[in-house]
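Job type: complex structure
Entries:
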Amino acid sequence: MGPNLFTNYGEAVSAVLFCIGFTNLLLQTNLIKKIIGLNIMDSAIYLFLAEKGYIAGRVAPIVVNGVTSTEAYINPIPSGLVLTGIVVSVSVTALMLSLTIRLYTRYHTLNLDEISMQLKKEGK
Amino acid sequence: MIISVILIPFIAGILVPIIPFQKRWQKEVFLETAVVLNSILVWYLLLHHSDSTFLLAHFTGNLNISFRVDGMSMVFAGLVSALWPFATLYAFEYMTKEKHENVFFLFYTLTYGVTLGIALAANLLTMYFFYELLTLVTVPLVMHTLTREAILASRKYLYYSLGGAAFAFLGLIMVIVYGSTTDFILGGVLDPAKTVGKTNVLLLIYVMAFMGFGVKAAVCPFNSWLPQASVAPTPVTALLHAVAVVKSGAFAIIRLTYYSFGTDFLKGTWAQDVVMAVVMFTIVYGCSRAVKETHLKRRLAYSTISNLSYILFGAVIMTPLGLVGALTHLVFHAVMKISSFFCAGAIMHQTDRHYVHELNGLGYKMPCVFGIFTVASLALMGVPGLAGFVSKWNLAQAAVESGNPLAWGGIACLLVSALLTAIYMLTIVVRAFFPGKDFDYGTVSGIRDPNWKMLLPLFIFTVFIILFGVYSQPLVDFFMEVAGGNI
Amino acid sequence: MNFICNFPFFSILLSLFSGTVCSVLPAKAAKAVNRVVIIAVGLMSAVLLLYLLSTGESFIYWMGHFPAPWGNEIRAGVLEAGMALFFCIIMYLSMAGGAHKLPGEVVESKHNLYYILVNLLLSSLLALVYTNDMFTAYVFVEINTISACGLIMIRQVGRTIEAAVRYMIMSLLGSGLLLFGLCIMYDLTGHLLMSNIKESVAQLIAAGEYQIPLIVSVALMCIGLCIKSALFPFHAWLPDAYGYSTVSSAAILSSLVSKGYIFLLIKIIYRVIGFDIFNSTRIIDVLFVFGLMGMIFGSLSAIKENDIRRMIAFSSVAQIGYIYMGFGMGTQAGMVASVFHILSHAATKSLLFIAAIGLTDVSGGSRKFIDLTGAAYRNKWAGVAFTAGSLSMVGIPLFSGFISKLLFAQAAVQVEGKMLASLIVLGISTVLNAIYFMKTVIRIYTTAGESPYSGVTFRDMKAYAVTLLFFILLNVALGVSSQPVVNMIEQGLAMFA
Amino acid sequence: MYFILLSIFFPILAGLFLLIRFRTPLSGEKAGTDRKPLLVLTGIFLVITAVFAFAAPLTAREGFTLFYLTETLPIYFRIDSVGQLFSLLAVIVLLCAGFFSFSYMKHEERESRYYGFYLILFGVLNALCFAGNLITFYLFFELLTLSSMPLVLHNGSREAIMAGLKYLFYSLCGAYGALFGIYFLYQSCDTLTFTAGGVLKETAVTQHGGFLLLTAFVMLLGFGVKAGMFPMHAWLPTAHPVAPAPASAVLSAVIVKAGVLAVVRITGYIFGTGFLRGTWVQTVWMCLTLITVFMGSMLAYREPVLKKRLAYSTVSQLSYILFGLAVMNEASLVGSLFQVLAHGFVKAALFLCAGAIIYKTGKTRVEEMRGIGKEMPLTMWCWTIASLGLVGIPPTGGFVSKWYLALGSLKSGLPVLDVLGPIILLVSALLTAGYLLPLTIHGFFPGGDYDYSGLQKKEPRKLMTVPILILTSLPVVIGLFPDTIAGIILMAVKGR
């Protein structure tokens, strides 16, 4: 277990990061911190993908010097996935942030529990 | 033909609110005609039945909705169709004091059709279908008065019935999966090849299904809906909660036990012991609650609980004789209880008194009603010469003959219950006829027997109580044939 | 290749494109476009379904001209086409039934936004149904989430925004897990197309390699989708989200969105991992237990609820429990029952939501039971429809709920170890269902005392009533002639393998 | 055969006729002054019924079936000697008490109801005596309870109604215990027709004899309720005293004997003494009867209210009879049946005396009755003679019966009980003397300090005294000719 963990340190780190992000997203009451957790979580996954797609000694799959041999480049699909994922996570984050702003303007707090309390008081 | 007897009440019922009747008697004539016609049709059908099955619709897989007349259906359909015209007649008079007549008669007549559907169902699925429908069409009748009490009662009735059906459903599934067919065949349809090694599970499900159908038959601990439901107008309480609905539960259990799971499979197992113990407990429990109850109709309802378990007791003896006993009590109790309920209804209708202690001295003012009530009470107690004795005799003989020690204990329960029956019924009679020395007769002045529409059914039922008591042989012979699978 | 094979792609593209078009149209036109698109997609799906039924086999459609394992693919079988058709029907009816509420609940300027979101949602649902590519599925899951969130918060009150935030958070947790599981799967197999992954997984299993990561990956995907489809105990977000959004949104969310995720899970089980391999893991036991618990606790929460919309929402938790119980049985029959229940529940739940709105409208907008007293007399159609829906939920024969119950029970009997548990829970859950639905039905048919709303009547009756009628008919149709549908599901599942 | 039916159904129909014809007005006032038609009719009916009942055994002795309740349950009548004996007792007591009530009931309300049920009761009793099988017997046993209940609660006070209900429920409880046995017997017997020596199937005895014994015990307890046997005796001291005195006389003298008849029937004619003798059932049963004998006497001794005292006395005396039946040999059976007659007449006479006292003076408690002998000498003389009969002083019938009982017990050869029985009977006889004779003593010798000034003649009318006199003389008569009577009884016991 130990040596494997050390060899695959990239995966291990991303898993740990994922857990951190996940926990933050789940347990933080502050909305901004939740969003940060979300981003950590997503980034951890991208790290994982990038790590998987990386082959030592090769370069990113962008043709600059006219080298067309596939041997020269790393696997492009994970990179593509990461890019797509980033797009998704950016849009989600944007949505979350906009929601947060709305809540903040209404209730003047970022604490989700407090917002729930106020809602209960409103009784609607 | 067979479907028409189910449809006619539906159509007639739906027409009631639609046709703009000018006068009340027109509506009465219309309804009574429809009901009587339908009853005649049912009897014609029963007497000229053929063994063929009428397939209405395929459901899913090999399940279908179909109808057939066999011995059991003859008993139940015959009973229901014989009682319904009288009850309808009685209802006309009774409902003059209630509101929303049209809605009442709509559902009242619908129930007739649904009950016939249960009786004539050829397989378990069809019966289950009508069984659920029965719950739904009777709920509006229970909540008819729309008082808070009625709402609570109907709510409870719904919960209990639907919940019970949910467990009865499990029994249906078992029969579908482990049976060779879902049709009713005396002796059961379980396929021995499929049930190997699954006996205990099947028995457990049987017990659940028994309790599920038992909800309608008011088996303890699922009986509390019945006394509450007696807030309904009396024709409903009398006919539905003494005959149609609760007997449907008992009928369903008989179908389940004798025609689906089969007595060979169940007899002598722990499942039989369990259900028998439950039934025995209910017999005594119902009676003791009736003794404690002071509301007249609720008292009768508790009495129904106990008497229904007589029927079930016969059923769970699981011998042909037991079935005969169960059927005898099924029919006789119907007549006795409907008669006593109608008396109660007549009392409430004439005097607006609901509690037992308010009945003091009424006996001399309403001699017909209380005379009939006395006969019904004695019959329920099982005095020889009246109907109740014969059915109890048959039940007890079946129990003795079965050789099952638990069933012997059941006889003791029957007798304890008979004693309690005497207590709760005769105290009413004594109150009515012997109000005591210092009773002020001024409080009952102006009270009279009701008119012929109420009395006629009562008299006819009383005649039947006595007739069954002294000359029941042809009927019992017929039940023997049914239990032997010859019809 | 037949022209009809283009239909899946067309329908996704059509709804996606119409979404963008809607943004520049006025509200009325957007509404028309939305209706037309749904009808068109539904028609295409119907034609596709007929075509597939006639050919009897599924097909794979390349996006662009790259063959597997490089290209992106769409796959259509009987089940997919049927599901798409069914989603369209429900969505159309839900939109029609809730249309009259929209002006009151959403500000005028945002109406076309609403239709954009609906169209987007439709496209993402269709994509979830048809796609053969895992990562595409993920992307559309996110699109689905975002549009669903938009549908919740389109009604701008505090409750809905809060509900939307909670919904987003839970959904994001779910999609995070899904994505992570997906990445591990990709890592293990090197593929993103479902059919290819399945081959590789079979090889891995045969070789006995990477067992633990495989299971972890499957588990992560399952949990992710469970969270998103509100399986107990991940259902905390659900009541608010369904309970306070506009009525069409609630109907669509409860009957379609969560079903989309569940359908994706079915696809993963069949097309990615393989049914038998999935069943050999302990995951199904976990799903089974959570399903059972959901059935009970969902209903218990519903009983305690004093708000009709939230009660229906909690009932969804219970019904989703049924579906997962079917998964957990690990048999073909259980799966058939679950798929049927997806249909039946979708038809019933949206009916209930729309009927409920009719009832609350005639009770001064209040959803408290006390105010609903006698509502069925004020709005007859809603009362009848609510009763029908309730009866279906309780499982009365003639309604679709009975058939799904029947199928579940029959499936349960065939599973030795889980038979008793599932049967008993099925029974108890029916009792609980009966309690809270019948309580409501009796309440709305009660006229005890004078209600303050006794004079209130309902506007826009015609369209609303027709919608409800269609819903009831759909329900009864599923309940009476279920055999063709069941056959179709069986055929479709067979095509998955 | 027609006389049997007439003796049963004529009084029942006549009673119903009275109930309907003379319906009392509802307002609650008295029946009015016009009692005469009612009384005349009742008297005629009573006499006619008595004639029928006497004539029945003379005309037909073979049984006949009236109809079938179910195919296997015939309603069957047959007259045998035992039945005849009980019928004799019933007819005489009912006649006497009936005529006694004509004047006694003057003060009571709703006389027609009383006479109506009285007549119905008469018919039912006849039917019981002539019943030829267990089912018929059971049928009329239940009817007996139901038709006698209105007599108990006749006066309508709360106490009377409660007592009536108590009577009803105890009796039904007993009847259902018996019914329990009948259910089982039906399967274990060839027939339920009464046959001397029993009708048990051989196979049933060998297969579950133990259970049959239990059945027998339950039936004995059940029928024993009616005969006031411990532990189900409590209804008797409550119910008997609250009824009008003639009704009490009938209850105490005749109706409780129905329980005795039932026990005779099931031990002798269904199970057969051979089956029961020497079993635990016999032992337990004997113990119960002895307990009852002793307890009844003790309670009577301590009871201050006259009619209640008599009721306790009935409890005790009835168990003499049951004790004799439990011993199950010839002498004891003769003793028992003798006691049936003796006790029947004596107890009826005593109750009527008590009734006369109450009617005339309104006194109910023993200590109020000092000097009563001076006021009503004839009544008190009858009381004294009847008391002596109950105590068992020769030459009254009571002595003969006790003699046979003791004889039978000593001959039985049962361990312990054979001697214990007679001892307890003796003790009880002493107690009987102790609770009955003080009334005589104080009645005639009120003591030196008694104030004679308030005394006046209170002897009742002939309509009251004549029945008392008849009933008092009868036990003496049978005591004077013990051999003849015993011979008849012996014939009956031997199974004619």
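Summary: The first strand of chain B starts at residue 54 and ends at 58. The two ends of chain B are 20 Å apart (CA to CA).
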